[in-house]
Amino acid sequence: MSGTGRTEGGRGRLGNALSGLAVAVGCVLFLGGFAWGAVQYKPYTVPTDSMTPSIDAGDRVLAQRISGGEVRRGDVVIFTDSVWGNLPMVKRVVGIGGDKVACCGKDGRLTLNGEPLDEPYLASGEPASTTPFTSEVPEGHLFLLGDERRTSVDSRGHIEDAAKGTVPVGNVDARVDAVAWPWGGTLARPDTFAALPGGVSKPGPITPVLAAVVAGVVLIFGGAAYGPVAKWVGRRRSGTGAR
């Protein structure tokens, strides 16, 4: 009988130690994930429908802090430009320095350096542009369009400006990686730009950040639940033995 008690006591001490370790590791993962995310990302609420269907008006997105030199064609970026009203805006990069962007080709598609572009991020039936335009992008600048081409106020509306509708790369603050609320998942990098010089950007660390936070929550609650569950099981066994 005394041997049974020692065995159960040893198991109890081991269980308590493991549950405490689980809570400690969970706290590290949870807090570390949040800290990592805070350094890498900033939240932003999209005010208009200019990026539908990729991002709807009112969506809360997570945008990775990057420098302008990290921007690639196809990226959805947040930028601020005094010519555009000096307010944060979200648009898609379709041209970088040295590119010639025009619309529309014989088949109604946007052309980049004379080649028609497939734009899978546009809604079905959405025109590449409602107005014709041509812009040669200066070095160190970006040509930006909304995915909702009928209503988006973007580079097309600034073609007559000195910068030909473009924005300096240094004006980019962040690149949108995911729609956080309502949860829409990560934004895919368009394959249409992958074969061009520079390719497309790599996704930020949003997946491991979320994995660390979720794993931390599971370990914290799992470890914290061990004590009450163990006591309940013990009472059940005691009650069964008494009968």
From TrEMBL:
GO molecular function (one): signal peptidase activity
Pfam assignment, any one: Peptidase_S26
Assigned keywords, A-Z: Hydrolase, Membrane, Protease, Transmembrane, Transmembrane helix
Keyword match Hydrolase: yes
Residues annotated as transmembrane: 21-39, 206-227
Location within or outside the cell: Cell membrane; Membrane
CDD domains: S26_SPase_I
Tagged with keyword Metal-binding: no
Family classification: Belongs to the peptidase S26 family.
Protein name per UniProt: Signal peptidase I
